[in-house]
Structure formats: structure tokens, C-alpha cells
Write a structure and sequence with these properties.
Structural class: alpha/beta
CATH superfamily of the largest domain: NAD(P)-binding Rossmann-like Domain
Oligomer: single chain
Strand content: 15-25%
Distance between the termini: 40 Å
Order of helices and strands: EHEHEEHEEHEHEHEHEEHEHH
CATH class of the largest domain: Alpha Beta
Mean pLDDT: 91
Largest sheet: 6 strands, mixed
Shape: globular
Radius of gyration: 19 Å
Low-confidence stretches: 1-18
Helix content: 40-55%
Strand order of the largest sheet: 2-1-3-5-6-4
């Protein structure tokens, strides 16, 4: 991939002020570490079609991150949407390739890279997701399509949302997947699964004391991943660690999805440690 020396990376349609601060911090630290003449900016975009027209007209506008509320609506305005993003039903990354805008998703692959970095394999394992929203959807498809997990279980409060995700994972990824109610099925599922992925907003700063996983449900050597990344170590992770679990903080998913974006936009290996070091001081004091 040819590197455009004057590329401007743009973080658009930011809906979360926390993400607004962390994404530019990570990407600009990466460009500085790599010695690239690039900048990553944050914009609130209301005219999505006009924004993409501007991207097409600006050859050095290399890439865009997409957040709520445009992750789904943007799909119909792109020239191509990669298969994983089609299955997930949303896009978090747009890459400008010679006038063509290509949509993809890096959230699920970013989570899998966090597991790989921690030395944890999902092959042959039973994976439990707590929650059924967009983040769980992205990561569960990555697990179904990019690992050899034995089985996937989705537990959530929204019955129709859970059922829809289970049906899509079966139809689009051929996954061995089942669903249930997190209010009634959680305790039994926790006893029966090797890996637990928490994908609800509970525990996100400033509500640090919230959790939906009772500490007595954890098993020693169980792997527990919390998609909440702020604070760095949530109550859920602290209690899992005390129970002897292997824990993976959500910040590693956030960093790795940005790593994958950097590599897609520049064609270079990302300076991962520079990106992680740029955001860790923002989280460790909370």
C-alpha cells in the first residue's frame, strides 16, 4: 500500500466525549512515533453524505473512524463494505483507496488481538458474552469467524436483540451459538464457560462501583474480559482477579482496534507501545 505523505486521518461523528479524547491521543502519538506527516482530528458530523463527498474530494484524506450515531447509516453511502462489517451490520473504519471508500470493522479483531497479546487462545473453548449490543455483536462475530471456539452463548436483557444476534451468528457465521436471559441464566452459564466477555456499559466511569457479574460466580483460571475501558481496572476485573481469574482490561481492545486502523491507513506496523502509553495515564488515575 502506498503511503500518502500528507495524509490527514480524521476521526468523525464522535458521539462519546471520552472516545473523542482517547482516539486522537492514540493516533497522533502513533504518527509522531512513526515519523509520519499525518494528523488525526475529531469532528462532529451531522451531514454524513456531505462529509463523505468531502473525503472523496480530498485525496490525502486517508481514513476515518466512525462512531455513534453513524456506524450503520454510513454503510449505504460507501463503495464497498467488507464481509465482516456486513455481517456485524456496522462500520467503524473507512479507508480512502483512490477515490473509493471502503468500510470495515476493527472492533472484533481488536478484541481478539488483546486475547492473543495475553497469551489466551479461544480454540476449543466455550465463550460467554454478557450483553447483546453493538460491541458484543462485533466481537462475537470475530470469535465465530476468526477462532475455533467450541461454543458461544449470548446473555442479555433485551430478548429480541439477543434472539436476533443468535440467529445472525448461526446464519452468517455458522456458529454453534445459543442465547438466554442474563437475569436468570447467568449463574449457570458462568459455571459452564471458559471465557467470559462483559459487553454492557455497567462499570464505566464515573459509575465505577457498578457490575452485573456477582463475584461468587467467577471460577479460578476462568478468563474474564471487560469491554469497559475506563477505569483501566473495573470492579468486575478486580473481583475476577481476586477469584483467581485471568483478566484482560478493555483498554487493550480499544488500543488494538486503533492499531488495526493505523496499519490499514498507512501500510506500516503500528507503534503499539506508543499508542498504549499515550492513553494509559488518562485511565490509571480513575
Amino acid at each position: 500500500m502506498q503511503i500518502i505523505d500528507t495524509a490527514t486521518q480524521l476521526c468523525a461523528v464522535i458521539g462519546n466525549p471520552i472516545e473523542h479524547s482517547l482516539s486522537p491521543t492514540m493516533h497522533n502519538a502513533a504518527y509522531a512515533a512513526a515519523g509520519l506527516n499525518c494528523v488525526y482530528l475529531a469532528f462532529k458530523v451531522e451531514d454524513l453524505r456531505g462529509c463523505l463527498a468531502g473525503m472523496r474530494a480530498f485525496p490525502s484524506f486517508r481514513g476515518m473512524s466512525v462512531t455513534i450515531p453513524h456506524k450503520v447509516a454510513i454503510m449505504d453511502l460507501l463503495d464497498e463494505v467488507e464481509p465482516m462489517a456486513q455481517h456485524v451490520g456496522s462500520v467503524n473504519t473507512v479507508t480512502h483507496e483512490k477515490g473509493r471508500l471502503i468500510g470495515s470493522t476493527t472492533d472484533g479483531a481488536g478484541a481478539l488481538r488483546a486475547f492473543s497479546d495475553a497469551g489466551v487462545s479461544m480454540d476449543g473453548k466455550k465463550v460467554l458474552f454478557v450483553g447483546s449490543g453493538g460491541a458484543v455483536r462485533a466481537v462475537s462475530f470475530a470469535v465465530a469467524e476468526m477462532t475455533s471456539a467450541k461454543a458461544i452463548t449470548i446473555l442479555g436483557m433485551e430478548r429480541e436483540q439477543v434472539a436476533g444476534l443468535v440467529a445472525d451468528l448461526k446464519a452468517k457465521a455458522g456458529a454453534n451459538v445459543s442465547g438466554g436471559d442474563s437475569a436468570t441464566d447467568l449463574a449457570e452459564a458462568m459455571r459452564d464457560h471458559d471465557i467470559v466477555m462483559h459487553g454492557t456499559p455497567l462499570g464505566m466511569y464515573p459509575h465505577n462501583d457498578a457490575t452485573c457479574l456477582p463475584k461468587e460466580s467467577f471460577r479460578r483460571n476462568q478468563v474474564v474480559f471487560d469491554m469497559v475501558y475506563r477505569p483501566f481496572k473495573t470492579r468486575l476485573l478486580c473481583e475476577a482477579e481476586q477469584a483467581g481469574c485471568v483478566t484482560i482490561p478493555g483498554i487493550h481492545m480499544l488500543v488494538n482496534q486503533a492499531v488495526l486502523q493505523f496499519e490499514r491507513w498507512t501500510g506500516l506496523p503500528a507503534p503499539v507501545e506508543a499508542m498504549r502509553s499515550a492513553v494509559m495515564p488518562l485511565l490509571e488515575t480513575e
